[in-house]
# Entry
Amino acid sequence: MTAQDILDPLLDAGQKGFPHHSAPLRRSAIGGQGWNVLRGDMPLPLAVIKRDALAGNLAWMQGFAAGHGVGLAPHGKTTMSPQLFRRQLDAGAWGLTFATVVQLRAGVAAGARRCIIANQVFRAIDLQGIDDLKRAHAGLQVAFLVDSIAQLELIESWHQASKDVQPVDVLLEIGVAGARTGCRTHEQALALAQRLRASPATRLLGIECYEGLGATGQSDADIAYAQALMQRVRAIAKACDEQQLFETDEILLTAGGSAIFDLVADQLKMPLSRPVRGLLRSGCYATHDHGTYHRFMNAVAARMGCGHGLHAAMEVWAAVQSCPEPGLAILSVGKRDISYDLELPMPIAFCPQGQAGITAAPPDWKIAGLNDQHAYLRGTGAEHSALRVGDLVALGISHPCTTFDKWRWIPLVDAQYNVCDAIVTCF
Amino acid sequence: MTAQDILDPLLDAGQKGFPHHSAPLRRSAIGGQGWNVLRGDMPLPLAVIKRDALAGNLAWMQGFAAGHGVGLAPHGKTTMSPQLFRRQLDAGAWGLTFATVVQLRAGVAAGARRCIIANQVFRAIDLQGIDDLKRAHAGLQVAFLVDSIAQLELIESWHQASKDVQPVDVLLEIGVAGARTGCRTHEQALALAQRLRASPATRLLGIECYEGLGATGQSDADIAYAQALMQRVRAIAKACDEQQLFETDEILLTAGGSAIFDLVADQLKMPLSRPVRGLLRSGCYATHDHGTYHRFMNAVAARMGCGHGLHAAMEVWAAVQSCPEPGLAILSVGKRDISYDLELPMPIAFCPQGQAGITAAPPDWKIAGLNDQHAYLRGTGAEHSALRVGDLVALGISHPCTTFDKWRWIPLVDAQYNVCDAIVTCF
# Structure
């Protein structure tokens, strides 16, 4: 696949949201077509990303990391968009994070040369896939997580059975009792680090944890949770350093999702015998949202005492297709088009059919349910009663990841909903 | 786009599940590669479709429709797979059903020439899109739903403003109070039918309803619900026929999702002044599932008194990546890969690392949660305690639609999980 295929692929009307009558276009040509979402130039439903909010988010998060003296390796799983990967790297990201080798391949194709797989890798096909990628791209660094001797033994089996493969770079994952992956105890972690150090199949580069699963949005609880976890991580890092278990010039210390990254950022710096690079791995910040991450960031802002610069950049537009009963309007958008895993979408704006101006959705409007291809917009007030077939409604989302993965391309729009650019995704 | 692009596109390692090391391949070449899922030839997670169950399901549903003297227009939104569209048509389907004009385009590209859009269409871009498609494909029939005068007025505005466009073919949608789209009353439906008959912009072809949203799985309730709805539909069809509101040689009467289609099939036949074609629109039958539709079909079988021939054809395979605590194994599969909207996936089988034989999952195994890229497999018995990193686990699904839309291609496998064919999707 060429760089053009990845960064500037051909899009056509087989992809939802693309105008039916348009000839196929390179992604980079879309911004020049003069399309406007509110004018009816594009079929609905349509996910859009607000250009200015996106640019602001990319800059703010990079600035946050720089201000705290840590690097940023944004999680690519959120967007899986080569164009956004490039913009994150161009904004100053240290590298990118992925969940699988397939995702890693997309990132490398987009130009990433420092990559973390924040996940266990152990199958021969995946280990070989990383080795092949490193051979094909000189200087490519890929580190993945290890949290068990059993996983290490599988890596060693592959390494022994394979001819002429490099040792793999790994991060020791520290976990939390009752939670997901990661070593539960200091002793277990240290014993695994010693095995990793001794193994010819692995090079231990640093320590990883993920604090995001424990986040509640309640600052007292979240501060205590993050502190306890990061204390354990730092104690293990110190012990590994004292025993000279790290096999690298620069020790990586990484944590940080999109919910309480402010509570771990400063903990990723510590004096060890070699330089330490702290790395945050937030992913959802790129578009932010109107739900879960909006609430988490309110708590971050309260803790920071100075606000934050993230703005919800993603909306999904749909049309009212039926007003079958008082208080109920059915929208042409459903589970195929928008996040519903953390909470249902929320109406944020509307635009009566044939008009160009948008109005904020009144607070009585609620999405009461989603089918595969329909949404139930309920409301009690006069604005809801005034809704007509053909009116447009914008929905905000909760959880960017599960809206991105429902679109193969997404237009970027300006404040007037003119399409000024586009990204593609490769889920 | 050529037929080859649609039916036999080039796949490559950018698509999850495709072996990292393989060169790009035409879809039709995949079955000849000798890949085996259990042998580790493909990265996980991986959705697979069991070839024989799929073939059986396609044949059984077609036979059910034929046996009841009605046609089948399978809902394409479930799979959005041109290869499966072709197989459904080749199996004898009257046509295909879609939810949007974008989906319709994919179906027409795959060869469908009789199409229903089981949804309201009213925006100029979509109406023009249908008109363009009909011009490009001689003999193409497309009928969509109308349920309000407001929608009709938008269609008429488009028709008046457009030069040289054909009237659109429509079906009158009958709905249920408190439910989704569709006319709520006999009077409302008849008044709209009269307006449709009088309008130069529309041709009324028949009557539509969707009974699936009211299905509970309790036969007594479902029989009463379907009977009441179908009585209304038939009364409206009769009234429309008496008033000569249908503008077609053959009147279409269509209902039928995948849950209680047996309760509406016979109601789609009735003596009117012109021939009546009954049409079922089930979509999920192609792969069936291990959850919601499995339970619905148990009730169907009980009502039929002779069993049914649908078998769960879709599985998602993942590897155990960590066993961090007794009773907990973390699998490399998450919300990006598998349905979670109706219920969480269910473990159905496992295969210890390096072995080729599979064992049924014990009943104490449960998926307790999903993150974006992880699943939590909990269990209490000895088999769970014996799970090791690298072991493979197969998950069954509930709701095929929301697993299909997470994959751009899916291999077909035989009973030994040899990959013998592949389909692509175009969501």
